[in-house]
Amino acid sequence: MIDSVKHRARELLKELWILVPSLRALRYWNREKVYLFLPINGVGLGHLTRCLAIARRIRQRDPDATIVFVTTSIALPLVHRAGFICHHIPPAALAGRSVSQADWNRLFSKSLEEVIQLYRPSCFVFDGSFPYVGLRRVLRRYRGRIERVWVKRGLNKAAAKGEEAGIYTSRFDRVISPQEISAQVDIAVGDDAVQFAVNPVYLLDREELLERGQARHLLSLDAERPCAYVQLGAGNINEVEDLQGQVIRALKRWGFLVVVARSPIALQDSGPTGADRVIMDYPNSRYYEAFDLAVMAGGYNSVCEAVVYGVPTIFIPNVSTGSDDQLKRVNQVRRKGYYEVMTAYDDKRFLSLVDGLMASERLPRGATLTGENGAVQAAALIAPLARGEAHMIETGRVE
Question: Are 146 and 119 in contact (CB under 8 A)?
Fold first, then answer.
């Protein structure tokens, strides 16, 4: 009973803090065609990659657009490398034990507001599981002055669904839901015309991949030998080294050259892998034509890219994620063609799956998926929102 009262009191204080007005926000004016993207720091690169994919398509639509990122992701150099401005706010998990959640949310709110005042965006795009308290404060302050978009991947574990709330979606002007690879849509519109479903979002179009010979040359791989790609996650929330070692040894016994991908956001420097090559690049998908087989975890990026680019894959899903339901995702994909799933590693079964995939009749690369990249659809939904102060005054949006 006492704990319940304390919890309600804390929640009330959060809501009161969110409602505190800001003179800076009242005097705010925005600039046309200025977009501010906020991908959070995840256990992988899904949030960041979706934002980069959409931002690239907005830039293709309008080269004059100003696109700025502010992120808690530790992969911010990847944003700079993609040609976008990027500001960084350390994620709460890495801010240090002396920093409380309340202190961190104050830091986040102040930092985000400084970036907003500097660039004066007319459209804000958030990609994350749910908006932080500090973010909700900023969203409330700039309501009616900045169009607010939530790019919200939908496949969550049942235990996490209580946090997906209309209470949060109501804070946004538009909610865009990238679908799983098992679904294809033509920009499905929700009943309230605020929520939209788009096709799976992925970074590179098929024609952007290196051709097989070039990819193998850059990776220094024998052109005549079968090659396998292994990426089992960053290892930040689950231990992957032992599993990775078992997979590599089995693949090498089969006769593969093995390339292991190390995540750019891995927090620990792992030792020798036993693989023939180790790469730390982004996006690794540009090399996919080099590989005859892949062994990967079940994150959104990995599954989308394996199917889009037609790479025969054995998925070993990470079941330790907080909300992302990797097991459900890979089981859906198993029905689409040459993809297999292992939930617990077993050497004999693994090699049996490898035999089956290598013996199966090959479909043309990319033949397992048709339809427009969801990043293009999302960009088409977002681009009209960044019309600037003059348009908002004309339509009565500015209070």
Answer: no
Token pair 């098992």: residue: 182
Mean pLDDT of 36-54: 90
Q: Measured between alpha carbons, how far apart are the two ends of the chain, in Å?
A: 42
pLDDT digits (tens, 9 = 90+) for 125-159: 999 988 989 999 999 999 989 999 999 987 665 54
* Residues in CB range of 232: below 8 A, 6 or more apart: 240, 243, 244, 247, 295, 296, 297, 316, 318
Backbone angles phi, psi at 322, to 5 degrees: -70, -40
Residues 6+ apart with CB under 8 A from 311: 229, 288, 291, 293, 294, 305, 365
Q: What pLDDT was estimated at residue 370?
A: 62
Q: Which of 81, 356, 309 lies closest to 215, judged by CA? A: 309
Question: How many helices and strands (H and E) does the chain possess?
Answer: 14, 14
Handedness of CA 97, 103, 109, 114 (dihedral sign): negative
Please say whether the beta carbons of 216 and 289 come within 8 A: no
Distance CA 73, CA 40 (A): 6
- Comparing CA positions, the residue from 299, 302, 295, 310 lying closest to residue 351 is 295
Phi, psi for residue 317 in degrees, rounded to 5: -65, 150
Q: Which of 37-46, 202-211, 389-398 has the lowest mean pLDDT?
A: 389-398
Q: What is the pTM of this model?
A: 0.87
Q: Go through 100-124 and write b for each residue having 16 or more CB atoms within 10 A of its CB, e for each that does not.
A: eeeebbbbbbebbbebbeebbbbbb
- For the residues of 281-342, what is the DSSP string, one character each? -S-GGGGGGG-SEEEE---HHHHHHHHHTT--EEE---TT-SSB-HHHHHHHHGGGSSEEE-
